[in-house]
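Example 3.2
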Amino acid sequence: MAKIVGKELMDNFIKIIPYVNEIFTNDIWAGVVDKEKYIALTRAGTFDLPIEIGDPIKAGSGIHTAMKDKKTKIVNVPAEVWGFPFKVLGVPIYDENDDVIGGIAIVNTMEREEKINEIINQFSSAFQQVNSSVQDISAGAESLARVGQDLSQSAHSTIIDVKRTDQIIAMIQEIADQTKLLGLNAAIEAARVGEYGRGFSVVAEEIRRLSEQSNKSAKQVKEILSKISEAIQTINKQTQETSAVSEEQSSSTQEIAASMQELSAQLDTLHSFIAELLN
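Structure, written as C-alpha cells:
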C-alpha cells in the first residue's frame, strides 16, 4: 500500500469519514487519530467500540502498533477483548519528513467469518465421523464376504463328502442284497436236508432278516443324507448371494468413503481460504 503523506490528506480523511459506510460494502467502524488521540470517527451500524472523539490511543491497539512500527498493520482482535471478534486495519499517516503524524483505523467485525468457520468445522467433524462409520461398515462387509466365501467352500467340501457316503451306502446295499441271497440259498439247502437242517434254517432266516434291516437302514441313511445335501446346497447358494451382496456393499461404501474424504479435503481447502481472508 502506498504511503499517506501530508496533513492535508489527513484533513480530507476527516471530512469523508462520516461517509465511509456508503463507500464500503461491509459495515465498518473507522477513526482518524493524531499522534495522541482520536480526532474523528464514524460508527458501524451493527457493532460499536467504546471509543469517543478525544479518547487517547490505547497502547498495543492496531492503530498504535501501525504508527509505532511505521507500517500498515492488520490485527485480529478476539472476542474476549470487546465481546465480539473484529479485524483492525491500521494505516499510519506521514508528514513530508517521513515522520508519523497520525493514522487511520478501520474496524470490520469477523462474526460472520467466524460463524462460517464454525459451520465448516462442524461439517468437517461430521464428515470425519461419517467417514469413520463408513469405513467400519466397509470393513464389516469385507469381513462378512470373507466369512461367506469360507462357508461356501466348507459347504462345497461337505457336499463332496456326502457324495462319497453315497458310494459307501451303495456298497452296504450291495452286501445286504448278497447276504439276503446267501440266506435264501441257505434256507433252501436247509429245507432240502430236512430235519438235519432245521438249526441251520434258523440261522439262514436271521441272516435274511438282518440283510433286509441293513438294506432298509441304508435307504433311510441315503434319504437323510440326500436331504442334508439339498439343505447344504441351499445354504451354499444363499451364502454365495450374501457374499456377493457384501462385496457389492463393501465396494459401494468404499466409494462413499472416497467421496466423504474428497468433501472433507474441500472443506479443509475452504477453511484455509477463509483463514487467509481473515489474516
